[in-house]
Amino acid sequence: MLTILFSAPYMIPFMDRFGPLFEKLGIDLIVPEVEERLDEGALLSYAGQFDGAICGDDRFSRRVIEACQPRLKVISKWGTGIDSIDQDACADFGIKIGNTPNVFTMAVSDSVLGYMLTFARKHPWMDQAMKEGIWKKIPGRSLSECTLGVIGIGNIGRAVIERAKPFRMTIVGNDIREIETEFIQENDVEMVSLEELLNRADFVSVNCTLNPTSAHLIDAEALSNMKNDAVLINTARGPIVDEKALVDALKKEKIAGAALDVFEDEPLPAESPLRGFDNVLLAPHNSNSSPQAWERVHWNTIRNLLDGLDIPYQTNERGEIL
Known about the structure:
It is built from 12 helices and 12 strands. It is α/β, with parallel strands linked by helices.
């Protein structure tokens, strides 16, 4: 009988839905306790016990991949990003990787726009002052008066730009890839160097993928290039931003604030200095929140797993497995 390590935190709460399906397919499940992800050590404790995995951002390092041989055949990632999986190791051992590309574009880009409006219009801070009995007009600004810098013009970066355009923002972009001229012209995007983007932007939105070229892309030097009234927004991956450098920049008021949905260590440690800033908005890696998108990912993740194990199945018109 096949056994699956079922550790996707977004799916575990719905075992009453998915458990009977796997039972019907003759598949056993190992369902560990997961807060956000399984680290390398936790995965190694299950090595050799499963044929496939349905996971979140679990740390499938080369060491884990090797320890899971020869049994492991497929890793089906819940969501889009697969940076937590050693893809070279999977290729070396013939392990298939499944994910759901471009599924959270709408939700994440909505979150970026929400953060910009929040900082521009100062609603949380006025609300807090009012509730404390303080009648104080905190100066805000119109997004039309602001420049948006988008780092990474992929699916989400493009959606962020398309949302910002109706607000008449000035938009500058940066990417290591050449971006289609049609998109740039249609959306009035000025492609510039990273340094120039940081120099000019009132809002810096990090939307690139995590890879060797982007790890700690936003470091102390990058933060020093930002305007002191600018806001950093990261809804991509935590390690793209050097958190120690960010904390230092915030303490020294080198930037005006930050909105962070992702972190170098998740869950965010209780002792993190980021929790102590009034000008930092924090969220628990939740910018992907969308009932329709989640449902699509649930079923696609299961289909990717079954495809990787060569298990036949039938679906209905919604892609649900019968």
